[in-house]
Structure formats: structure tokens, C-alpha cells
Amino acid sequence: MRLNLRVWRQRNADADGAMSTYVVDGISPDMSFLEMLDTLNEELILRGDDPVAFDHDCREGICGACSLVINGDAHGPERTTTCQLHMRSFRDGDTIDVEPWRAAAFPVVKDLVVDRSAFDRIIQAGGYVTAPTGAAPEAHATPVPKPDADFAFEHAECIGCGACVAACPNGAAMLFTSAKVNHLNVLPQGAPERETRVLDMVAQMDEEGFGGCTLAGECATACPKGIPLMSITGMNKEWLRATRKAAKR
Questions:
Q1: Which of 4, 94, 103, 135 has the most crowded CB, counting CB atoms within 10 A?
Q2: 163: closest CA among 147, 184, 179, 152?
Q3: pLDDT computed for residue 108 by the predictor
Q4: How many CB atoms lie within 10 A of CB 181?
């Protein structure tokens, strides 16, 4: 395959960026999108040019590090992570636009790399449970009803890639935050911080400068792990419950 790439290049956070055009040839349809970018970078290095910076780690759809907007879609045309997107999703001769996540809370570091530490700070605000030190408890010491376990597991699948933010027209982080809140709040182990968790995490989310949620639904459509839009509704209920309890104290 021969492809025309239009790639966002930006030297650093303070520099202006622009799209640069490259042509890559000999691309196998079985390559992943990141392997195609590797091929481009090999050619750039051989020419003495600066390679394109992009995030990646496991390349197995697990870590959520890969974060690209491809032809206007977060992670590309398939509902998967960029590392699991294969070039057979494109045709010979295609022109492909490759950009970083676009969100005020995700500033560009270089080229296609953005700073997603805002997600880390949301987790630090309440994404934990109280646990005594010492030996691990027995696995069945705290029974969890099957529906609750399934609900928690569904939300625990969130890998924090940020596609929900990149896809949202408002740059909101509600789907990510709700996945983390609902994952822990439904479990008995998360009960001690149930109210403070949702209040603190939502407050931190707002402080980071993410946009407001209008339930456009683009976040759930782009999520590679299928976190449902109803997750946001669930977190809103938790937030209202916690707010009312806090007001009565």
C-alpha cells in the first residue's frame, strides 16, 4: 500500500504546530497503525529528519497509551485502540490525517503526544479504597452480588486512554470519571469513601478544565472498551446523593 499522511508536527508545548505531508510506501494491510508510523519514522531517521513523536506502550489494547485522532475519529475508523487498528481498514492511495487529542486539559507535549496527567489527578482525588495493612484478606471474605460484580467489571475495563475526551465536542471527561466512580462505588470495599469519592473526583475533574457534559454521546461511541453512556447518569445520581447528604450535615 502507498499512503499519503498528513501528520501534526509541533516541536514543543510552546511552539505553533502544523500539518506536514509524508508519503509511505510498501505498507502491508496486516500492519497495525503504529507499525505504519514506525515505518515512517525509520524513513525520517534515515533522511536525518526528526521522527514523529507518538505515545505507545503495550501495543496490545490494554494500557491506553496510544492516542491519535485519525481522519477526525479518536483511534480511527474502528472501535478499538490505535495499536489494534490495522491498515486493512484503509485503501491503497488513501490520504490519512493524524492528529493528537484535541482538548484544553490535554496540552500537546510534542507532535502527537499530549499530557494526560489530568486523568491521574482525578484518580488521586478519590480512585482508591480504604484497606488495612497486613496480609491480603480471603478472596471470599466480602461477598459481592453477581450483578454488582458485573457492573463493577464493566466499568473497570476503562483504560484511561482519553478517547472520550477527544471525541466529545465539549472536551468533557465525564465518561472516564464516571467509569472510575461507578467501578468502586458499587462494591462493598468502596463503601467507606462512596460520598467523598464522587464529590472529590468531580471537583478535580472540573478544576482540570474539562468541558461540561451535554450527553452528546460521542464519548461512548469512541470508547474502545464500550463504557456505556448510562455510566454518566449513574455518576450523576451518586453525586446528587452525596451532595444532599453533605448539605444535611
A1: 103
A2: 179
A3: 97
A4: 30
